[in-house]
Specification:
four-stranded mixed β-sheet, globular, Glutaredoxin, single chain, about 80 residues
Length: about 80
C-alpha cells in the first residue's frame, strides 16, 4: 500500500498537508507514506489542480485538504476504508 500526498511550492495549503501527513504517519507508523513536491521532484503525476492531492494505491482519494472540523473524520475514515 502506498499513500502519496502531492504538494506544490506556491500552494498555501501545502503546509497544512505536511501537518496532515505527519499526523497520519504518527497514527499509522507502518504506512508507506510519501510527500512529493511537484515543483522540486520529478514525477510522472500531472496535476492541474493547485491544492494538495491525496493518492492511495494510485487512486485519488481527496483533492485539497479537509477543513479543520473534518480533519479527524478524514483520518479516521482513511484508516477504516484503506488500512483494515
Amino acid at each position: 500500500m502506498e499513500f502519496i500526498i502531492y504538494v506544490r511550492d506556491n500552494c498555501f495549503e501545502s503546509g497544512k498537508a505536511l501537518d496532515i501527513a505527519s499526523w497520519v504517519k504518527k497514527l499509522n507508523p507502518d504506512i508507506n507514506l510519501r510527500v512529493v513536491n511537484l515543483d522540486r521532484n520529478e514525477s510522472d503525476f500531472k496535476m492541474g489542480y493547485q491544492g494538495p492531492v491525496y493518492v492511495f494505491n494510485g487512486k485519488i482519494i481527496r483533492l485539497g485538504n479537509p477543513n479543520n472540523e473534518r480533519l479527524m473524520e478524514f483520518v479516521e475514515n482513511f484508516e477504516k476504508e484503506h488500512l483494515n
